[in-house]
Queue: 3 jobs
Job 1
Amino acid sequence: MNSRVLPALALILSVGIFFVYVKPTWSGPLKETKVAIVNYEQALVAADEYKKKQNALTSARNAIDQENLNRLSVFLPDSVDNVSLILDINALAARSGLSLANIDVVINDSTTGNDGIGKANPVGSVDLSLSAIGTYSALQAFLVGIEKSARLLDVLDITVNGSETGVYNYKMIMRLYWLR
């Protein structure tokens, strides 16, 4: 009888250990750990894909000629550099024969950076209001200079106040674009 009791006790003990310790451990902390491991593995795969994409974009950017990058940074700068822009416009006006009287920054809807549907626009803009005095040919030369400028500018509005002397007062609104 002793030979049958010992295996039965061992079986009952092993079933008890299974239900008291192994099953709760397996379905509790071990299951949570396995789920965490799967999530971490997915994050590692995503990080590896991101790193590959970043390296590809860096290689593509490095393949661009530095002169073209410099031209692009002048065309669409990464900040609003009002001082250099005003100096450039003033120099262009002086070369054209216009005399700038006043330059003001006008707040417009596009300075908020929102395109109306909740998505941020990567290109910002600022409107500049300027007053100038000069002849019509000077205005034409100034506008040709703005058109050929390396900086992205739009002339939105021009108001001309007439004169008997051939020297006119001009009020212009220009839009300056920059990369956020």
Job 2
Amino acid sequence: MTQDIIDDVTRERYDAAGFGRPVGLGSKPALLIIDVQYRTTGTTPAPFDRAIEEFTTSCGDVAWDAVANIRRLLELFRSKGWPVLYPYVAPKKAFDAGALGAKVPGIMDIPDQGYEFHPDIAPLEGEILLPKRHPSAFFGTPLLSYLVQAGVDSLVVTGCSTSGCVRGSAVDAFSYNYKVAVPSDAVYDRSPLVHEVNLFDMGQKYADVSTTAELLGSLQAIGA
């Protein structure tokens, strides 16, 4: 994570108040891969200014960097037989506009290809797909029911965007008393500043935030 975006005074205040202590992982984690579709990654790596010419919701080449790390986590989860779930944005219809469509009209005009999963992390048969209309992967979906059925006690939350669907899902997971891990380099956003501020805030209140490499070490140790 970039350290210089969050000022020292902010860090000192949170530390003095006792925020940001680690929670750790349980014995049965699940992986959430949120909205890693061409609509947020683009079909090829490109800087943000070029990427939004293809899909206005694209986050640019930072998405491809994150996808590479999500793939590392995905390979471990599959090898361990742990649950993998895909909350994703389904193709928008006119009746889906609602408040979000009014706020961000461009989301209503994404071509069908934009809704395809990025091939490097595309779901396999048996992995759970969860179409959603709102930021949190829990809102209006059966995600919680699947987690209970699988005996999950902790969640690794990856995907897009750090400030939106990732954050909303992490907060709701925390609210359901799950242990939450957010790998800082396996989530992405269109703004580096917004990305870092939200990582900091989640790490202080709702989740353990680390790099993918650090998290892989912790995951590999489960059951060892």
Job 3
Amino acid sequence: MNINIKTTGIALTPAISDYTNKRLDKIIHLLDGDKSAQCDIELAKTTAHHQKGNIFRAEIHIVGAGKNFYASSEQPDLFAAIDLVREEILREISAGKAKRISLIRRSGARVKNMVKGLWPWRKRDLKI
């Protein structure tokens, strides 16, 4: 997976970069190590005019191999924003995976029912 980290309004320090990469390990694991996936992360300080501290935004956009996931979060702490956006993207990825597995199971059940109906010599559920 290709990972790009972009910062706006703040400097990308090694501590921020390491923290972000550590949080992405679970996401990479759930995507099954897809080499064609592109992960764009944007970390930004949204405004500098708040009376009570800064507001930070974290966004993750994952594209590739039929996947398109996006999540964003705004928090007063940059690391809290990274944690929340990670949880959102994990929720989206796992929900997509559950939908895909459910579709495969339903399709298999329909095929099985069609195949069962092809053998008319089998007397099943025939009550007259």
